[in-house]
What does this fold into?
Amino acid sequence: MYSLAYGTLPIVRNVGGLSDTVVGIDQNAHDSTGFVFDAPEPIALLICIRRALLLYLEQPERFLQMQKRAMQTKFTWEKAAKEFEALFINTIQ
It folds into this structure.
């Protein structure tokens, strides 16, 4: 979350909270906030790093758009609390 806030686009493996937090460029090019890879292997990480570097070098305006989008990402409990409340209400009804 800190990297998103400061515009340093994260390179993450698609697991746990990271998959909920970072939108990979392959997952949604228009809402992407970082670079995501799936396989728990060094080659998968290397490929992801290379893709990030290529985007930075070859499409700097697109990279900048991703940075701005990442910095605008908000992480609050408000959305999660509302979803939990709705789930709770549905459960007790």
Observations:
- The chain has a mean pLDDT of 91.
- The chain has one domain: 2-92.
- The two ends are 36 Å apart (CA to CA).
